[in-house]
Design brief:
Layout lengths: L13 E3 L6 E11 L2 E8 L2 E8 L2 H15 L9 E9 L2 E9 L6 H8 L4 H17 L2 E2 L8 E4 L3 E4 L6 E2 L25 H16 L4 H5 L13 H6 L1 H5 L1 H8 L6 H12 L11 H24 L1
Helix pairs in contact: 3-4, 3-9, 4-8
Length: 303
C-alpha cells in the first residue's frame, strides 16, 4: 500500500511552497511517523530538514511552538527557517523547514566513543531543555529517537511534535519515557516531566543487557522506579550518575536549571576515554615512515 507521502517526498521531487514561493528539492527520507514525515532537502547549496504533517491543527500547533522558541536568544535562535503549505494529492499539507543537523543517535555515539561520553551528552541535553523551559515550554516527547549527537557530544533535538506550553496536558508521548507509565506523576507539561524522560533516556542508552525490552511487557501495577535501579547497579557509568537519576525519577528537582547545576557538580572531574587509534593506521604510518627514511638514504647516496 502506498503511503500519502511516498510520491511527494521521493528523492529528486520538488516541494513548492504555496504562500512563500520557496522551493526545495528532496534528497532523502529521514524519518516517518504518526505525526508526519521528515526529509532532507536542499535549496541551492544549503541543506535543511523539512517536516510535513497531514493533521493540520496538530502540525500548526507544533509550528507555533517552534516559532516561539526560534525567536528566543538561545541556541534555538533562527532554528525555524520557513513554514508554508504544499499540495499533496490535491490537498493542502502544511510543512516547516528547520536547520539540518548531521549526526547520529546517542546509542550509536556512545557505542563508538565509549559510555563515559554520557557526561558530556547529558550536560548538553540538559542545557537544551533548560532553554526550552525558560521559554515557557516543555519538550514533552523526549526520547532517543528525537535527538541527534554530533561532533564532540553536541546535542540537537529534531522532532518538536510533543512541545507543549507549561501547565497543559502533554500532547504527545512515548510510554516508556512517560512518568505516568511508571506511576510516578501526571502527564502535565512541567519541567520535572522532561527531567523524568531525560533520566529514562540516559538509562536506556546505558542499558547493555536490554532490560527495557522486558519492562515493556510488565503489568501496570508492577511498574515502578525500583525496576530501574538494577541498571544503575550493573553499569559503572550509570552508578556514577545514580544520585541524579534517582532525584530526576522521583521529581525532586524544582527546575531544570537546578537539575543542570546538580549535574555539573556531580560529574565534575570525570574524564573521557578517548577512542584508541586503530592498528591499520599504525601500520600505514609505520610503513610510510620506513618509505620516507629509505627515500632519504637513497637521495643522500646519490649526492
Amino acid at each position: 500500500m502506498t503511503t500519502w507521502y511516498e510520491e511527494a517526498f521521493r528523492p529528486g521531487a520538488e516541494i513548492q511552497g504555496k504562500w512563500n514561493g520557496r522551493s526545495y528539492v528532496v534528497e532523502r527520507l529521514l524519518g516517518a511517523g504518526s505525526n508526519g514525515v521528515v526529509v532532507l532537502v536542499r535549496r541551492g547549496t544549503a541543506r535543511f530538514a523539512l517536516k510535513a504533517g497531514h493533521e493540520t491543527v496538530d502540525h500548526q500547533s507544533e509550528i507555533n511552538s517552534l516559532l516561539a522558541i526560534s525567536l528566543t536568544d538561545t541556541s534555538f535562535k533562527n532554528f525555524l527557517i520557513d513554514a508554508d503549505d504544499m499540495k499533496v494529492r490535491g490537498k493542502d499539507i502544511s510543512f516547516y523547514v528547520m536547520r539540518y543537523i548531521d549526526g547520529m543517535m546517542i546509542s550509536q555515539f556512545i557505542h563508538k566513543r565509549g559510555q563515559d561520553w554520557i557526561y558530556v551528552i547529558g550536560s548538553n541535553l540538559l542545557r537544551k531543555l533548560t532553554e526550552i523551559h525558560k521559554s515557557g515550554y516543555v519538550f514533552g516527547d523526549l526520547k532517543i529517537e528525537n535527538m541527534i549527537v554530533s561532533k564532540y557530544g553536541d546535542v540537537d533535538l529534531i522532532d518538536f511534535g510533543g512541545v507543549t506550553p507549561k501547565g497543559r496536558a502533554i500532547k504527545q508521548l512515548t510510554e516508556v519515557y512517560d512518568r505516568g507509565y511508571w506511576n510516578m506523576g501526571e502527564r502535565v507539561a512541567e519541567e520535572s516531566y522532561d527531567l523524568f524522560s531525560f533520566a529514562i533516556l540516559l538509562l536506556k542508552s546505558l542499558d547493555q543487557r536490554k532490560r527495557f525490552s522486558a519492562m515493556n511487557k510488565m503489568l501496570p501495577q508492577n511498574r515502578d522506579v525500583d525496576q530501574l535501579t538494577a541498571i544503575m547497579r550493573e553499569n559503572s557509568v550509570a552508578a556514577q550518575i545514580a544520585p541524579f537519576l534517582h532525584k530526576a525519577l522521583k521529581g525532586e528537582f524544582t527546575t531544570s536549571q537546578e537539575a543542570f547545576n546538580y549535574w555539573k557538580k556531580l560529574i565534575s572531574g570525570k574524564k573521557l576515554t578517548q577512542p584508541a587509534l586503530k592498528m591499520p593506521w599504525l601500520k600505514i604510518c609505520f610503513a610510510a615512515s620506513i618509505f620516507i627514511f629509505a627515500a632519504t638514504v637513497y637521495v643522500y647516496w646519490l649526492n
